[in-house]
Amino acid sequence: MRKISVLACLFFASLFSFSQSAKLPEVDKSPLDVSYYPNNYPVLKIQNKATEPLVVRIIYSRPQKQGRTIFGELVEYGKVWRLGANEATEIEFYKDVKIGGKKVPKGRYTLYGIVNESTWTIIINKDTDTWGAFKYDSKKDLLRTDVKVQKTEETVESMSMWFDKTTSGIALNISWEQLKISLPITL
After folding, report:
1. For 7-16, what is each residue's pLDDT tens digit?
2. Using an 8 Å Cβ cutoff, are 128 and 142 in contact?
3. What is the signed CA dihedral for 36, 38, 40, 46, rounded to 10 degrees?
4. What are the two backbone dihedrals, phi and then psi, of residue 59, each rounded to the nearest 5 degrees?
5. Of 47, 106, 135, 177, which is most buried, counting CB atoms within 10 Å of its CB?
6. Residue 171 and residue 183 in contact, taking contact as beta carbons nearer than 8 Å
7. Rounded to an integer, what is the distance from CA 10 to the centroid of its chain?
8. Domain boundaries, the chain
9. Residue 122: its pLDDT value, please?
10. What pLDDT shows up at residue 20?
């Protein structure tokens, strides 16, 4: 009985020691977010309230403005950008769609952008699971399409992405600082 007590004490002491030395990762300054179309699809699905099938999901990190000038400085004009922070933004289509008149097959892709003052070039790339735009390879582009920049009166502190229904399908909206773009997606 004494041996069992000693072994149990040693086990719990080592467990306590390990838990004291284990360090949790720091909280990221740019939290990961997910947007769906239909909006809030997972919640609607578990509540049996989904009236439309799942079309698309986007996973991105939400950088903060924090008093900085974003477009033209932090995000340089004319350079490929990951459309967020940290890992490159990923988009997954659950059915074939059209963007800029070009077919995008059902699948998972990386979404990049080239920001300019009046237009952004949105890039859908076949390479996935990458960090930033450091390994961006234009040979893996599925498509590129240009969208117009819209100025907004309200300043958006945390970059945001969401989907809206349109007459021909949906639009992926991206807003940050005092800009917004809408990428039409035909269903």
Report:
1. 445 455 554 5
2. no
3. -120
4. -120, 125
5. 177
6. yes
7. 46
8. 28-186
9. 98
10. 53
Q: Is the pLDDT assigned to residue 173 strictly greater than 90? A: yes
The answer to whether the CB of 145 falls within 8 A of the CB of 183 is yes
Which pairing describes strands 97-99 and 89-93: parallel, antiparallel, or unpaired? unpaired
DSSP for 16-44 reads HHHHHH--PPPPPSS-EEEEEESTTHHHH
Give the chain's end-to-end CA distance (angstroms, integer): 71
So what's the pLDDT on residue 6?
A: 45
65-109 tens-digit pLDDT = 999 999 999 999 999 999 999 999 999 999 999 999 999 999 999
